[in-house]
Amino acid sequence: MRSVAILVLLLFLLALFGPMLAPHDPTAINIPNRLAPPGGAWLLGTDALGRDILSRLLHGARWSLGLAFVVSFLGLIIGTVIGLIAAQGGKLADWLAMRVTDTFLAFPELIAAVVIAGVLGASTASLIFALSVTGWMRYARVARGIGLSIGTRGYVVQARLAGLSPLAIARWHYIPSLLPSLTVVWTGMLARAILGISALGFLGFGVQPPMPEWGTMLLDARIHIRSTPLQMIWPGLAVVVSVLAINLAGDALRDALAEEGVKP
């Protein structure tokens, strides 16, 4: 658990401070040194435009991990609000909220995100919107399920009888009970967001050139996969390590909560 947590912490510290460690300008074109092998001034080599791959990976961490955090957090907010409305709003609100959730779940998230990003146009804002509106459903189902069980408890019933508003009840009673389970869900959705951002970037719907992002780096390197495969291996490895570390952290957190008697 500790080693996984340290790895995840290092990843996000890399996203915050990685650009400061970059040895070169990630967007500087250097044609004479294009497709240089690893070594010397270029520790991981250069791409087809002579840009330093290590510098682009370090700057790309801020985009890939930072955007994944934003997307997963927005999904958390949207899903929690919809789940609490379903749990507290009565039978009609519950039915409407769950039908909307089921409708969104009927479509594969990545395909729906590609369609939305394609309609809105390739941009960072479109990427955030597309992944946020297709990634809130699991939060909503968890929040609704726990909210329904909490709503029948004596202290919640007494709070309603005392005249507390739904917002106050949600703040003081629902949200503290939801946090452990939603945190576990959030770690899984954070990993999915990294994959989604990289996938949309590889398809050309993500962060636009010349800004480096791991998915767009894979897109730029695909043409040279046979001659210089390391161009694709480095950003692909960054995605794999990040997703694996966050998923392991989520599993460890779920196990820790289970040992303490908290149902995630």
Provide the fold topology:
Blueprint: H1 2-21, H2 53-88, H3 90-105, H4 109-120, H5 124-133, H6 137-151, H7 154-161, H8 166-202, H9 214-221, H10 230-259
Helix pairs in contact: 1-2, 1-10, 2-3, 2-5, 2-6, 2-8, 2-10, 3-6, 4-5, 6-8, 8-9, 8-10, 9-10
Structural commentary:
This protein has 264 residues and is mainly alpha-helical. The protein has a single domain (2-7, 42-259), classed as MetI-like fold (Orthogonal Bundle). The chain is built from ten helices and no strands. Helix 1 crosses helix 2 (53-88). 39% of the residues are buried. The model has no long low-confidence stretch (mean pLDDT 87).
Low-pLDDT residue intervals, each spanning 5 or more residues: none
Assign the CATH topology: MetI-like fold
Overall shape: it is elongated
- Supply the number of structural domains: 1
Class from secondary-structure proportions: mainly alpha
Q: Quaternary status of these chains?
A: single chain
CATH homologous superfamily annotation: MetI-like
The topology string of helices and strands comes to HHHHHHHHHH
Rg over alpha carbons: 22 Å
Task: Report the sheet-strand fraction.
Answer: under 5%
Instruction: Report the end-to-end length measured between terminal Cα atoms.
Output: 16 Å
Task: Summarize the main sheet.
Answer: none
